[in-house]
Amino acid sequence: MPKEVMRISKNYMQNPKTIEVASRNEGAANIEHHYYMVNARDRYKALRRICDVNPDIYGIVFCRTRRETAEVADKLMQDGYSADAIHGELSQAQRDHVMGRFRKRKLQLLVATDVAARGIDINELSHVINYNLPDDDEIYVHRSGRTGRAGNKGTSIIIAHSREGRKLKSIERMIKRDLTLMKVPNGDEICQIQLMKLIDKVVSTEVNHQIDKYLPSIEEKLAHLDKEALIKHFVSAEFNRFLSFYKNAPDLNVSGSNNRDRNERSGGRNERSGGRNERSGGRNERSGGRNERGGAERTGHAEAGYTRFFINLGAEKDLQAHNLIGLINEYTRNRNIPVGKIDIMRKFSFFEAPNDFETDVLSGLSDAVWNGNRVNVEVSQAPGKKSSRGGGNRGGSGRSYSGGEKRSNSGGRRDRQGGRSSGDSSSRRESTVGGRSSGGSSSSFKGRFNAAAKRTKRD
Fold first, then answer.
1. DSSP secondary-structure letter at 182?
2. Torsion from C-alpha of 416, 419, 423, 426, nearest 10 degrees
3. DSSP assignment of 111-129, as one string?
4. Tell me, what DSSP letter sits at residue 212?
5. pLDDT digit string (tens) for 368-398?
6. Per-domain residue ranges for the chain?
7. With contact defined as beta carbons under 8 Å apart, do 62 and 131 qualify?
8. Measured in whole angstroms, how far is the alpha carbon of residue 83 from the centre of its chain?
9. CATH homologous superfamily of domain 258-395?
10. Burial class (CB in 10 A: 0-12, 13-18, 19+), 360
């Protein structure tokens, strides 16, 4: 009960009685409270990994605003997760439809705001994920209390960034329990869990005996494979896309390296200020110059057996890794292309794919359009190699690129200078003519008057 209401009751009621159905603003004993410390821009990536490392998750993801709720839910659905959103802009019929699917477990994740989640009463929730922390600590208690009901155990997760340390301490004081710092799982851990989940699903699948008549043909097709090779082929067919997504997945934990955090913050400042590192890095990789970020870890070289591609979409166009993978799958019509390392820059990006799929990628994306933007994909040239556009060696196309800018700029200067010269001459003519007819006449008369006065004094 709010303190104001308690004060009013004491002032105007005689011997009031208080009935408490639970401890005041304390977390339930059967709920574990975890938090992950990441950079603010990596929240969604961390959310994906949390969902992937918990394949049986059934919970609510709390966001701060309706817009953020819709964006997170759309991203989850685009990435293949069983999710949907409820917020204040939904009609009652739409809300009932979403809640019906969630109660029947046709949805694993429900993305919601605090206001829209009022009245949700589901006892079997396994997780509550705080995509953003609420302004009021008491709201966190209410959020976490939606899991761990009816004697079940639950987990409340906070995706926090480095500036929210005081907020986390305040929540600990409120719930009178410690928040456990967890490490965002890396790609290998997630792949291990997901692979075992796939194997368990295969083992528990009920065999349909209608396939018995096809077994002779199947055995004939697989006769050349031994047990180990057959398992590898089976797992690869079902799991290649997942493995490719988490290949070379970066570490999202902020506390893992202070230097890394500082570098990312300085990188963010360079992006915001439009520094030269990223732009010159992109030009040099395409033309065979310096590193992508002016001497950073990226060298522009593809891994062995892979081709590195340039694409003219970047973070400014809201491109993310999952969007890029979806774009490749859609236009190449081949979902078996194992996309390798992806580097999302500000105005452009780079990605890698096996050499065998180079033609498929270039031809498939030649006429692609994404979010109204024409897509241009080229093979990125490693440092020291000649450009596919006919540019020379190191800095060849870079010189033509900068030279084009110089010609354009110098031309602009000539135009502007020409404009100034013609404008100045015309303005001088106008001032001369105007001077004789208006303000200029008074100044010339004054000059003549002063000269005459001096001559009179000398005389």
1. E
2. 160
3. EE-TTTTTT---S---EEE
4. G
5. 888 888 999 999 876 555 444 433 333 333 3
6. 27-182, 187-205+212-245, 258-395
7. yes
8. 18
9. RRM (RNA recognition motif) domain (3.30.70.330)
10. middle
Q: What's the whole-number mean pLDDT along residues 77-83?
A: 90
**CA pseudo-torsion sign 353, 341, 297, 282:** positive
Among 1.10.8.280, 3.90.180.10, 3.40.50.2300, 3.40.50.300, name the CATH number for the domain at 27-182.
3.40.50.300
Contact 241, 339 (CB under 8 A): no
First to last CA, the chain: 103
Cα gap 332→367, rounded to integer Å: 11
Q: What is the CA radius of gyration of the chain?
A: 33
Stretch (H or E) spanning 316: none
- List the structure tokens of 114: 């605090």
Q: DSSP states of 267-290 as a string?
A: HHHHHHHT-HHHHHHHHHHHHT-S
Q: For residue 36, what is the DSSP state?
A: E
Which whole-number Å values give the CA distances from 437 to 230, 431, 432, 441, 447, in the listed order? Answer: 100, 10, 9, 6, 16
Quickly list DSSP for 338-389: ----EEE-SS-EEEEEEGGGHHHHHHHTTT-EETTEE--EEEPPPTTSPPTT
**Contact status, residue 302 vs residue 397, Cβ threshold 8 Å:** no
Residue 119 Ramachandran class (φ > 0 left, ψ -120 to 50 alpha, else beta): left
Q: Which amino acid is at 315?
A: A
Angstrom distance (rounded) from CA 404 to CA 112: 51
Residue type, 53: V
Question: What gap in Å lies between CA 64 and CA 89, rounded to an integer?
Answer: 14
Distance CA 230, CA 234 (A): 6
Alpha carbon 376 to chain centroid, angstroms: 21
Place of tokens 């295969």: 202
User: Could you give the CA distance from residue 308 to residue 348 in angstroms, rounded to a whole number?
Assistant: 13
Say if CB 360 and CB 334 are below 8 A apart: yes
Q: What is the spatial distance between Cα 46 and Cα 328, in angstroms, rounded to a whole number?
A: 23
Residues 266-321: pLDDT tens digits? 444 444 444 444 444 444 444 443 333 333 334 566 777 889 999 999 988 888 88
Q: For residue 431, what are its two tokens?
A: 């001032």
- Among 163, 48, 170, smallest CA distance to 109 is for 48
